[in-house]
Structure formats: structure tokens, C-alpha cells
Structure to design on (444 residues):
């Protein structure tokens, strides 16, 4: 819970203790104790913003004040105290536990972090994408919001999950350890470059903790929303595109098959990633923020779920990719059969160990790799444990999995693997992690 939300809950305490005070004290303070929760709640709404999870608290504050204004009998006082106690408990449980406003893990690197959103247009395919660029910044400014379009994002997530959109209303209050549009730290470059894709109907913001961690250590990260396959893509001109596989030539009324994904979706995603690589070359040649700052001889591609599967495919057909990371992505396309030639880090969830086909394909991928290939399993985790989703509610995290620690663990392993291949850190730093027993090392 945020600071003023706690204060709004605590504002009910005087009403709880009032019945135990002497009669003259009760008479003198009765109106004030009833007024206090309403005033503090109003201040909280004005300064921090309301959210749906606190509606019971706001309603309770109004009810307590209304009861006091309408009657002031001892019986009414006891009723108010009882309501205050029950409401206080329920509000704290509901707001702080079930649907909190989460904070992402704090970056551990040396640099402040900047972020900027951009539209990139591939005129040859008549396709445009939204991307977020994360980079080491010259200084830290005001923390940026997780999204500029919380209502549209909530609608997209609601459409994807079937959960009412208002449940995601508190996404508007999540902030990043990054500042929008601040200058790049010139002494940090030239920067190794990373391109990220989320899972099918995922969002580019879903792995923000990983992006800001990597940027704080001197990487430039470009995260992609794959238009029409993201839960929602919002463009600055106001266009909103929800997930719609009809744009890929797939009947949305039918269940999507692996063959359809391989034929219609995967080629588009590969082309999206390669177009972003082309765009990075143009930015490095002539861009007010990025010109001359990118080391395009050291590029990695990574992704979660289908984004990780796409990264594997792109890195086999594009020589600009030097290293690939797949976060719990089942295999599609030719990766099911061919050997991986680029250094590969595969991190899977414990939940996915029950997927027979996926495990068979991963075993084949790792055992036939022609370069370093490491397979780790994140203990007690599920598919969404690699994203910030499980920070939104403890009901979403598997038993025994702590989301903040899990994200920080994945971020550190990803960074150290990249350091060994895109920088001169060597591989010892990463291989020594095996001694810490934080991950299940399935192959190394």
C-alpha cells in the first residue's frame, strides 16, 4: 500500500477507541473522529489517486460520517465503532494483500536508467510497431510510469484474461526506476544492444524489471509490442490495436494450431525483430539520442514464451545476433529440429517440467547445440514468474515462489550470461553461479 492509503486506514483508529473514553471526551470528539477518515480519504484521492480496491474504505469513511451527522446516540456510536473495526480490517486485507500497488526490484547497476517510447514503421510490410528503448542515463529524473495508457492496457488485459478491466486499474500507479527522455550517459557507450519480445498476447512492459536492471549495467534494450499479437498496442496518435489473429490470416473463431502459428505468426515476429535490428543501424547513424552510442557488433535477442522461441529462430537466420536467451518458451519453427549455433541460455519454469513435448524439444535443443548452451529451471515457478504479473497479487504466485526474489534471480543470471558473451567478462562469472544452488541446473 502507498503511504496515504495506510494513513487513510489508520484514520479509523480514533473511532475505535472513542467508546472507551469518558463521556465528556466522547461528546467533544465524536464529530472529529467521524470526520477524520473522510478528510484523509479525500486527501489521499487528490494526491495519490483513487483505485477500485479502496472503494470499500471510501464508502466506509462516508458511512461513518453520515451516521454521525444523522444521529449521535451511544448506540449509534457503538455501531460506528463496530463498522470501523470491520472496515479497517477488510480494507487493509483487500488493498494491501489481494491487489497491492507493486514495486519492481531496484536495479543493482552503476547507472541511472532512461526510457523512451517510439513508433517504428516498416513500410515494406505496411506494419508499424511500438517499442520502448531502455538505456543508461546521465542522471535520474522523475520516475516514469509503467504505462502512459493505463485504461487501454487494463482493457486489453481484461479482454485477454476475461477478468473485468477495473481490476487492473491500479496499474496506473506502478512506477519504474527509469526516467523518461533523460539524456544518455555518453561515457557508458558504445553499448551492447538487446532486443526483447514478450509472449503471445503479452506486453512489452511485462519484463520491465529485467530491462531496467540491464540498462543500469550499461546495456541498451529495445522491447517490442508485436502489433495484433499483443494484448493491446497503443500508438501516440490514439490508435488502439487489441490482439486479433485475423490480421495474421487466422480465423479467430477457431482454436489456433501450432501449424498456423509456424506458418502465419512466426514469420511476422521474426521480421519484426529483424526490422528492429535494421532500425538500430539507422539510429546509430543519425539519431539525436542514440547516434554513435551503440555497439552493433554485440547484439543479443531474448524473449519470454513465444518471444523466446522467436528469438531462437531470428538468431539462426540473422548473423547480427551473437547470443540468445529463451525464458520458458516452447519451441516453434525449425528450432524443433535444427541445432542452435549461437550461445544459448534457456531458463524454464518448474511448472513447465510437466509439458512432455516442450521438455523433449528442449532436451534436443540443448544436447545438439553447437555452442555454449545452458538450461536452468527456476524453482517453484510458473510461466508468468518471469514477468511482473505475479507482483500484482499473491494469489497469482505458485506456492513457495516469492516474485520479487524470483525476478531479481532471473535478472542476475541473464545479465551475467550476457556479460560473458557480449562483454569481456568471461564465462567463469556465470558458471560459478552453479555453486550457489539458486537454480536447478539441468544442463551446462
Amino acid at each position: 500500500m502507498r503511504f496515504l492509503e495506510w494513513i487513510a486506514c489508520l484514520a479509523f483508529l480514533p473511532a475505535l477507541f472513542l467508546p472507551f473514553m469518558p463521556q465528556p471526551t466522547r461528546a467533544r470528539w465524536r464529530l472529529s473522529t467521524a470526520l477524520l477518515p473522510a478528510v484523509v480519504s479525500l486527501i489521499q484521492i487528490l494526491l495519490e489517486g483513487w483505485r477500485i480496491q479502496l472503494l470499500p474504505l471510501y464508502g466506509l469513511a462516508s458511512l461513518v460520517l453520515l451516521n454521525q451527522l444523522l444521529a449521535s446516540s451511544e448506540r449509534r456510536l457503538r455501531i460506528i465503532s463496530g463498522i470501523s473495526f470491520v472496515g479497517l480490517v477488510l480494507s487493509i486485507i483487500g488493498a494491501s494483500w489481494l491487489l497491492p500497488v507493486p514495486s519492481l526490484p531496484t536495479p543493482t547497476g552503476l547507472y541511472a536508467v532512461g526510457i523512451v517510447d517510439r513508433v517504428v514503421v516498416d513500410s515494406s510490410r505496411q506494419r508499424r510497431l511500438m517499442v520502448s528503448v531502455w538505456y543508461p542515463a546521465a542522471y535520474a529524473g522523475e520516475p516514469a510510469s509503467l504505462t502512459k495508457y493505463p485504461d487501454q492496457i487494463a482493457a486489453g488485459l481484461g479482454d485477454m484474461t476475461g477478468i473485468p478491466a477495473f481490476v487492473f486499474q491500479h496499474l496506473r500507479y506502478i512506477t519504474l526506476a527509469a526516467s523518461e527522455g533523460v539524456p544518455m550517459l555518453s561515457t557508458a557507450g558504445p553499448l551492447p544492444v538487446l532486443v526483447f519480445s514478450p509472449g503471445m498476447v503479452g506486453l512489452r512492459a511485462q519484463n520491465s524489471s529485467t530491462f531496467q536492471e540491464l540498462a543500469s549495467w550499461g546495456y541498451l534494450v529495445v522491447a517490442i509490442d508485436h502489433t495484433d499479437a499483443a494484448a493491446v498496442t497503443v500508438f501516440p496518435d490514439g490508435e488502439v490495436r487489441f490482439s486479433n489473429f485475423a490480421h495474421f490470416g487466422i480465423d479467430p473463431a477457431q482454436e489456433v494450431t501450432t501449424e498456423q502459428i509456424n506458418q502465419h505468426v512466426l514469420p511476422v515476429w521474426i521480421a519484426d525483430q529483424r526490422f528492429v535490428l535494421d532500425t538500430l543501424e539507422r539510429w546509430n547513424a543519425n539519431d539525436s539520442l542514440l547516434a554513435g552510442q551503440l555497439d552493433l557488433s554485440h547484439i543479443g535477442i531474448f524473449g519470454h514464451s513465444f518471444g523466446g522461441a522467436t528469438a531462437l529462430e531470428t538468431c539462426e537466420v540473422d548473423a547480427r545476433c551473437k547470443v540468445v536467451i529463451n525464458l520458458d518458451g516452447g519451441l516453434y519453427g525449425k528450432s524443433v529440429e535444427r541445432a542452435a549455433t549461437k550461445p544459448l541460455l534457456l531458463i524454464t519454469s518448474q511448472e513447465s517440467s510437466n509439458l512432455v513435448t516442450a521438455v523433449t524439444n528442449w532436451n534436443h535443443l540443448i544436447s545438439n547445440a553447437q555452442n555454449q548452451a545452458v538450461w536452468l529451471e527456476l524453482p517453484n515457478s510458473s510461466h508468468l514468474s518471469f514477468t511482473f504479473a505475479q507482483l500484482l497479487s499473491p494469489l497469482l504466485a505458485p506456492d513457495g515462489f516469492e516474485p520479487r526474489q524470483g525476478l531479481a534471480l532471473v535478472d542476475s543470471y541473464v545479465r551475467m550470461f550476457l556479460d560473458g558473451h557480449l562483454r569481456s567478462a568471461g564465462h567463469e562469472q556465470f558458471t560459478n553461479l552453479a555453486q550457489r544452488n539458486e537454480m536447478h541446473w539441468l544442463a551446462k
Q: What stands out?
A: Residues 258-285 form the longest helix (28 residues). The chain has a mean pLDDT of 87.
